[in-house]
Amino acid sequence: MTIGALALLVHGGTENWSSARWKARFDEVCRDRRVLLPDATVDPAEVHYAAVWKPRPGELAAFPNLRVIFNLGAGVDALMADASLPNVPLVRVAVSDLTGRMTEYVTLHVLMHHRQELYLRESQREKRWAPRYQWAAGAITVGIMGMGTLGANAAEVLARIGFRVVGWSRSAKQVDGVECFAGKEQLGAFLRETNILVCLLPLTPDTRHILNRDVFAGLNRNSPMGAPVLINAGRGGLQDEADILRALDDGTLGAASLDVFETEPLPQVSPFWNHPKVVLTPHNAADTDPDEISKYVAQQIERFEAGGALENVVDRRRGY
Ligand SMILES: NC(=O)c1ccc[n+]([C@@H]2O[C@H](COP(=O)([O-])OP(=O)(O)OC[C@H]3O[C@@H](n4cnc5c(N)ncnc54)[C@H](OP(=O)(O)O)[C@@H]3O)[C@@H](O)[C@H]2O)c1
Question: What predicted TM-score, i.e. pTM, was given to this entire model?
Fold first, then answer.
C-alpha cells in the first residue's frame, strides 16, 4: 500500500514555528510517512495531506490527490480567501495547549484593566503614592464575543475568579454560570451588560469590522470602572481601527488590549504604538507549541485512514 506524503507549507509565525522545527516534529509522529518541505522534489500526486500556515494562494491547488488540509492554527480566514483552495475537508486546530494559552492572555488582560494596572504603572513611573479605590471582580461584567473552543474556556476561568460573565455567539448556548446571548437580534442586550468586551470571534464576511463605533457605544458604562474596555485577540479584520482610536480619544472606550491588527506586523507609523490607553502584543496571544499540534494532526490522519471521522472540520459556508 502506498502511504501518501504530507506536505508542510508554513509561512510566517514565530521562531518556534520554523519549517525545520515543524518537520522534525512531524517526522517523529508520522514515522512511516514522507514529510515534505516546499523545496522537496516530489511528484505532487503523491501528496495526500497538507499541514499549512498561511500557504500562498494557489499553493495547495498544485496537489491533485489531496485528501485533507490541516490548518496549523485555529483561524482559517487566510485560507478561505484562496479562491483555488481544493475542495477537500479543512481541519483547524483545537487543542488544550492553544486553549490554555489564550485563556492566560484573556485573564491577564481582563485582570490588568480591572486592577487599574495602566494607572498604577504610570503612578510608579511618576513616584506618586496614590492608591485608588479597588472594586471587587463581581462588580465587573466581562462579555465574550465568540463562545467557541477559546471563548468558552476563558469564560469558565473568569467566572471562577469572580467576574460576572456573559457570552455572545451565532447559535444559542447554555453554559453554567454564564448568561448567553445569540445572533444579531441579541447583540444589543449582550453589549448593554458588558463592561470589558473580549473578542474571540473568527474573521468571516459576517464578522468583519464588527468591533466598530456602534458596538463600543452600546457597551455598559455603569460599573465602577466607568468607560468600558476592549480586548481583541481574534483577528485584526474584526476591528475598525479608526473607530477604536476615536472611541479611545473621546472616552467611549477607557482602554484597549490588542493582539491583532489589520496590517501585521503593525506599521511603525501606527498611532497604536504610543497610545497611552493601548496595551498591544504582536499577535502572540496563543503561540502554540508544534509538539502538541503535530500529534493532533498525526492522530487525525490515523483515524481518517482507519475510516473514522475527522474532528474540527471547518464549515466552508459559515467560514469557520
Ligand atoms: N491571537 C491569537 O493568537 C489567536 C490564536 C488562536 C485563535 N485566534 C482566533 O480566535 C478565533 C476563535 O477560535 P475558536 O477556536 O474559539 O473558534 P470556534 O470554536 O470556531 O468558535 C467561534 C465562535 O464564534 C462564534 N461566531 C462565529 N461567527 C459568528 C457570528 N457571525 N455572530 C456571532 N457569533 C459568531 C461561534 O458561534 P457558534 O458557537 O454559534 O458557532 C463560536 O462560538 C479563531 O478563529 C482565530 O481567528 C487567535
Answer: 0.97
